[in-house]
């Protein structure tokens, strides 16, 4: 029967104050279960800031810190599932699992219960993370993309994790002469260039041409440096996809729909004016991508921000493309 074991973090890499990757070793004498790219594992820390649910007079729900008698945050164990970013061949060779995590915060700036504790890791002084000795989930290529000749992977932020696992495994198998003839396209967006996790590794995989793989990395808060990078797209992942498929930006669509129904214009107009106009890397054309993403042969797999995934579904439905998303 699966249960919690005590693993140790052997590497922590901070991409930004709110994004990082870490490698987890199993408990001494243990090994991680076999898994497929796209699956996830439950992790746990015992010193997390706990929260309590508060219902406002208007019925709204909020979560605030649960304080002890001295006014300090109450501590306790919290468990959460995370997609695995390492590939099965890496775990078989090196024994570790890798995770790509974000420091979540509520509207009051309070760090997420488990993510806040993970970002306090300080190996080797504080390196213990409990893990449930079972890896599960059906967000795999075998379950979600079987029979399609073109697979578009759309990840926002740490939603990239399952796709990194998939692509690294495909790359490894292709190096051994095992390919499936499928075209893979990855669209990953994050706020800044530094927050594009696994960017160099993915670019190297694409450049190797071991299999048919096109990598598009995008930043939603571009700098002058980013504008000069010919291999970098600009805009949120959903708006880059809308641009590829000839649809208006989400914020533009929202503004037009607000005008049509006579709603409050100012917030919609402000959102439109602050949104970054999507642009593709200079070495990729919309025409090439539209051919590559022919709806008759394509499936979109997405993972990440819930509102972004909802818009990706809208885009897929509008264009007649099969859609799949990661559900917890």
What do you see in this structure?
The protein is of the alpha/beta class. It has 11 helices and 14 strands. The chain has helices spanning 88-94, 113-118, 141-144, 161-175, 199-208, 224-227, 237-244, 250-261, 265-274, 286-292, 306-319; strands spanning 4-16, 19-25, 40-49, 51-55, 61-65, 75-83, 97-102, 128-136, 150-156, 183-190, 213-219, 232-234, 298-303, 322-325. Strands 6-3-8-1-2-7 form a 6-stranded antiparallel sheet. Strands 12-11-10-9-13-14 form a 6-stranded parallel sheet, sandwiched between helices. A two-stranded antiparallel ribbon has the order 4-5. Helix 7 (237-244) runs parallel beside helix 11 (306-319) and helix 8 (250-261) runs antiparallel to helix 9. The radius of gyration is 21 Å and the shape is globular. The two termini are 22 Å apart. The model has no long low-confidence stretch (mean pLDDT 93).
Q: Which descriptor suits the 3D outline? A: globular
Number of distinct helices: 11
Largest sheet: 6 strands, antiparallel
Q: State the strand order across the main sheet.
A: 6-3-8-1-2-7
Task: Give the proportion of residues in helices.
Answer: 25-40%
Q: On the 0-100 scale, what is the average pLDDT?
A: 93
Structural class: alpha/beta
Q: Helices and strands, in N-to-C order? A: EEEEEEHEHEHEHEHEHEHHHHEHE
Count of β-strands: 14
Computed Rg: 21 Å
The proportion of strand residues reads: 25-35%
> Any low-confidence stretches, pLDDT <50, length ≥5?
none
Gap between N and C termini: 22 Å
